[in-house]
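Schema walk-through. Below, the input block comes first and the output block second. Nothing else is stored per chain. Lengths vary across the set, and this one has 251 residues.
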Amino acid sequence: MTLKKLINHKLVMGVKYYGGRNNTGKITVRHRGCIIKRNNYIIDYKRVVLNLNSIILHTRPVPKHSCHIGLIMYENGLFSYIINPNNNIRGKIIISNFFKNLTIGTYTPLNKVPYGSTVYNVELKIGFGGQLARSAGTFVKILNRFPNSYNKILVQLKSSEQYLLNRNCGSTIGIVSNINNWLKNWKKANMSKKLGYRSSVRGIAMNPVDHPHGGRTNGGCHSKTPSGIITKGKKTRKRQISKNIIFKRKN
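--- output ---
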């Protein structure tokens, strides 16, 4: 088995797509389907191997992620996929040393990062792996430290929200790659359809039996889903972040 096939066998796996259907075959999420076959790349958000330098073998865009990922090889011969930082090219060495110099791509605890630095792939809880700032062009900024009272680090997200995180939470120095992703234009509906987004029909263009807005009788009615749930103004967030973490909500 060649090296390339060996890496793909260990770090790449197929994905079964259900097209918005549940285990009985009923559509539970609308406007999904017609997706092309694609693979799932196993990305290391925790950086299991620490204090070992690594080299970037190649970078590539992958499905299900807006950022680019990089294949790295550690000094001990292990391979891993990571979220590639901006301006990291093939052949660059990522130095992993917590006590000397911190370079772009280094995975380190938040208490080692200087004030005003930008990091990404930040943990919310110790040992859970990176959960914040993983999309293309995102980052988290270090604002302040509270070593005596809270033993916390104050960070600010790109949305202007501020979180108080444990000083030992892991993070990666730099900004996520592919910063111009928001400028991408799909040009035609078929390109979005291949990504799994099927075209939709307006509720007001349907019949009354198919949608609450149907039959052009929605005058004075709030915007609703086909099942009758209010869509504008109703809170739908289920997994709330702990109030001990949130320091300031976005404006």
